Amino acid sequence: MSKQRHEACADDRRLSGPGRVFRLLLAALISCVMLCPVSAFASISGQDVIGNDTIEGWGLSVTECPDINCEAGILVAADGTVLWSRNADDQRAIASITKIMTAIVALENASVDDEITIPYAAEVVGESSAGLRSGNTTTLGNLLYGLMLSSGNDAAVAIAIGVGGDQGTFVDMMNAKAEELGMTSTHFANPHGLDADGHYSSARDVAIMAQYAMNKQEFRDIVCLSTADVDLGAGTVTLRSTNSLLGIFDGCIGIKTGFTDPAGYCLCSAANRDGLELYSVILGSSTADTRFSASWALLDWGYRHYIPVQLSDTETTIALVPSLDWIDRSIPVAADRESSTYVLDYNGPVSQYISLVDVHGKVQVGDVLGTITWTQDGKVIGTAQLIAQDSLEPPGFFKRFEIWFKRTFKGETHETAQVLAAPPEIQSPSSN
Length: 432
Fold this sequence. Notes:
This protein has helices at about 15-35, 40, 55-60, 100-110, 120-125, 140-150, 155-165, 165-180, 205-215, 215-225, 290-305, 395-410, and strands at about 5, 50, 55, 70-75, 80-85, 115, 135-140, 225-230, 235-240, 250-260, 265-275, 275-285, 305-310, 320, 330-335, 340-345, 350-355, 370-375, 380-390, 420. By secondary structure, the chain is an alpha+beta fold. The radius of gyration is 28 Å and the shape is elongated. Mean pLDDT is about 90; it is low at about 1-20 and about 30-40.
């Protein structure tokens, strides 16, 4: 296995020399691109989907929407929530982003310690290369570095033949995995992503594939690296990632670039900030630089608008539940657990619905007296049981007679339920 240059995947501060200078220059370039006029580097479509509706459906102004340079794309959270999308189900070329599936199939059908002899077909495949030479031997693990960091087409072919026996069999395995993952707009024709008839995917499917791959620690450990020292069969070489967001975008942890003329400039990116993991897919961006600035802008927009909210704790009294045996007694209730979630602020305010049981007889602390459900734009985002915070004994004989008298002759009745806690407030998108 390779000697990794960076133990902290999201921290590239230890880069020095030309690599460090290059990333600083790129960071400055991306910052300039993001500050340029919308017409030069970005685009907004009324059919872009934000949350649960299109921009036109929301009636949003241009200033309230992310400006993203791509023909198709998507931004999703690790929980599967789609925050933004454009033509997300269109079938199109994805170039070297294909190699994410190549890595998945390899990891699930072989060991990273397996030795693979480089075939001649790998050396001559052409285009992007990890510098493999036929006849040399290395491990599958090392080839995965060449595949995902250098985007080596030669590494893809070597892996396909080494794991599948031949490229055709391996591609069949890739398509079977895509079907298993529910990638309904995807079909692979090769393991590397060079243009071919019947080789396509979609932004939504790429996001599904990327999230699945990032659940594999071996994959995750590779794609978060800016550089790695690897022996590909002819001595140790330094491989550099083609993903220039690593080390300059806060929290970036991968994943993969891609380019061919039909595909345009592509980038599947992942970032993790304080446990919130977002996945951005940019397909068909106009230049190499704008795929990075588009992904940067989309991820940054996501972290500003997919916000944490606390729905409940176990101490706050949410409601007072009347005892039907009494006239003047109610039991305070609180949620049975702490509950928090993330919400997209564009989807509007959070609402809560409380259902309480009719209370008779003895009540003890912890008894379930109701439920609370939180929704946003009609979708349930959380639930909890409401439990008694205090105990209450039923009235004794003489007290029951007094209550009966007051109800019968004075028209008095039990207290009404009271809701004391409001749902969490969500700031408007323009405030974030």
